[in-house]
UniProtKB/TrEMBL annotation:
Annotated region (Disordered), positions in chain: 1-36
Major subcellular location class: endoplasmic reticulum
Highest taxon of source: Eukaryota
Species the sequence originates in: Colletotrichum orbiculare (strain 104-T / ATCC 96160 / CBS 514.97 / LARS 414 / MAFF 240422)
Pathway assigned to this chain's UniProt record: Protein modification; protein glycosylation
Annotated protein name in UniProt: Alpha-1,3-glucosyltransferase
Length: 600
């Protein structure tokens, strides 16, 4: 008789589904990246509609099964949004942002490089940094292969060719899929992995971020290329998460080179990178970051400088319509007297000074149009335009520094990657509320990092969804007057309400409030605060649509929009700052101290 074998077969572990632990649905399990997460209570049904749509993907073993479907779905929304009109459609004489972007493709492909920042400044003169000009040149060259008449100098102005519209919409989507969307995907993966967030939850946050209504409305309906700049910023943040600090500097220079609005994040980038060099002291890293930054700026300006020198060599004047000696340079008129205007380097100096002058238009005033920030709201009570421009600039500088120094000091002394979205959001809110020369569309900058919080720890919890959703819906609402002027009310309503519905937010649902793990006071305080704003926004829409403003106050409803929006954004700034203070562990906690988790 054969004795029984001592070997016992190993029992196979039961396969656990991917949960979220953030209010999205089922229990959590080891993530796809090999990180072990705490087991969450089993939830047998999704909590909000977005979780319902992604519910079948819980058991997916590979992200490549779900990610292509997500990217195709969000791409379909982008293309569908582009079927609507755009800024300036059938609105002569200046048309709008669509014509500005088309015109820059026209001038960058039709005139010499040295004339880009000087050409016909009264008709949408180029006023963005060089990388935007290079992007316009590339798009214009590709478009000219399809139809050269789209970018004919002078004669193509105000073109409303439908095929041109398709091409222009396609350039936004292609640019976004080349830069912004890969950056979002990489950031969400890294941030979720560091926060021990399961894969299914990361997918939900990815969809929520890519369907952010304000971004779709401005870039794919109104028409702009903000997501290119935001993509470079996200690439910089992702590099910080990965510890690739030199690449972080390179990507952020690219963001600055595309749109100067990236300066909203500059203090946070500087604070984190400097803090990572100081705590602990790493002089080699500091030198490397500095050299990478200088080299990136040099590479950014190289085509512009080389083109200017080449034009000067051929005898092409940057100002062909100007006769006589070279005029005084803007911003630095004394340079004309100090420098030799016949020297070989002078055209380069002239070009760079003009570029800076166009990129930073201090002469435009404290704010542009009606924007929901502190200064525009204050202007209702105190007419700020009656004060000297220099005084307003100094006041804006002091107020901006006062608002952005606290979060960046925290980030400098606590250079933790987990604090990056909050630091970027708080700093951008400070810039939006208090800085000089702010536009309505600048609200995209604080909304982007605040929306990234959905991908972090407890990112899709009810409290987090409530605050992130509140900021996004309020941001889209403050842009309604801008969108209404160009007949884009329907996409505003559809995209905003759809996003609110998917995340279970007001006005479609109240499921983001009254969670069990918070005190009764906190539940009701958050609900009453947000409900007051939601009711006010809904009432404003009713009144604005049905009651004409008084004859002597034609902007009454727009001013009301500005005032309510400024207060709401100020609350968002304070919420981000408080959350950052709490998560930085800078305040002493009562009881037995807990060991700090690794942040990087």
């Amino acid at each position: 008789m054969v004795p029984p074998s001592p070997h016992k077969p190993r029992r196979r572990a039961k396969k656990a589904g991917n949960g979220n632990g953030n209010g999205g649905g089922a229990s959590s399990s080891p993530s796809s990246e090999g990180h072990i997460t705490k087991r969450e209570p089993l939830v047998k049904a999704p909590v909000f509609p977005l979780a319902s749509f992604l519910w079948p993907a819980r058991g997916s073993v590979s992200e490549w099964e779900v990610l292509p479907l997500i990217l195709m779905a969000v791409g379909l929304f982008r293309w569908a949004a582009g079927l609507w009109g755009y800024s300036g459609f059938q609105r002569p004489p200046m048309y709008g942002d669509y014509e500005a972007q088309r015109h820059w493709m026209e001038i960058t492909t039709q005139i010499p490089v040295s004339q880009w920042y000087f050409h016909d400044l009264q008709w949408w003169g180029l006023d963005y940094p060089p990388l935007t000009a290079y992007h316009s040149w590339l798009c214009g060259k590709i478009g000219a292969l399809i139809d050269p008449t789209w970018f004919k100098l002078y004669t193509s102005r105000g073109s409303e060719d439908q095929t041109l519209k398709i091409f222009m919409r396609a350039t936004v989507i292609v640019s976004e899929y080349l830069i912004y969307i890969p950056a979002v995907v990489v950031f969400v993966r890294r941030y979720a992995r560091q926060s021990n967030v399961p894969r299914w939850t990361a997918w939900m946050s990815l969809v929520a971020i890519l369907l952010q209504p304000a971004t779709l409305l401005i870039d794919h309906v109104h028409f702009q290329y903000n997501t290119v700049m935001l993509g470079f910023v996200l690439a910089s943040m992702s590099s910080m998460l990965a510890g690739r600090y030199l690449w972080s500097a390179v990507f952020f220079v690219a963001a600055l080179g595309f749109k100067q609005m990236a300066l909203y994040y500059a203090f946070s980038v500087f604070s984190f990178l400097l803090g990572s060099c100081v705590f602990p002291l790493r002089p080699g890293r500091f030198v490397g970051i500095a050299l990478a930054t200088v080299a990136s700026f040099a590479l950014l300006l190289l085509p512009l400088v080389a083109g200017t020198l080449y034009d000067a060599h051929r005898g092409i004047d940057a100002r062909p319509d100007y006769d006589g000696p070279p005029p005084a340079l803007p911003l630095f008129p004394w340079l004309t007297d100090v420098l030799d205007t016949n020297a070989i380097y002078y055209p380069v100096v002239e070009q760079l000074v003009q570029m800076v002058h166009r990129v930073f238009p201090f002469a435009r005033g404290l704010f542009e149009d009606k924007v929901a920030n502190f200064w525009c709201a204050l202007n209702v009570i105190i007419k700020l335009r009656t004060y000297p421009s220099e005084l307003l600039q100094r006041g804006a500088l002091v107020a901006t520094l006062a608002s952005i120094i606290p979060p960046n000091l925290l980030l400098f002394f606590r250079p933790r990657t987990s604090l990056l979205p909050l630091a970027f959001a708080t700093t951008a809110w400070g810039f939006f509320l208090f800085s000089y020369q702010v536009h309505e569309k600048s609200v995209l900058l604080p909304l982007m990092p605040m929306t990234l919080l959905l991908a972090g720890k407890q990112g899709l919890s009810r409290d987090n969804r409530a605050w992130v959703g509140f900021a996004n819906i309020l941001g889209a609402w403050t842009m309604f007057p801008l969108l209404k002027r160009v007949d884009l009310c329907v996409p505003y309503a559809v995209l905003t309400l759809l996003w609110a519905y998917l995340l279970g937010l007001p006005p479609t649902s109240l499921s983001a409030y009254f969670q069990e793990d918070h005190s009764i006071l906190r539940k009701w305080a958050t609900f009453i605060l947000h409900a007051g704003f939601y009711v006010a926004m809904a009432a404003w829409h009713v009144v604005e649509n049905s009651v004409p403003p008084p004859f002597d106050k034609p902007d009454l409803w727009v001013v009301a929009n500005v005032g309510l929006g400024a207060v709401g954004f100020g609350i968002c700034y304070l919420w981000c700052l408080v959350q950052m203070i709490v998560q930085s562990d800078i305040l002493p906690r009562g009881g037995k101290s807990k060991s700090k988790a690794k942040s990087q």
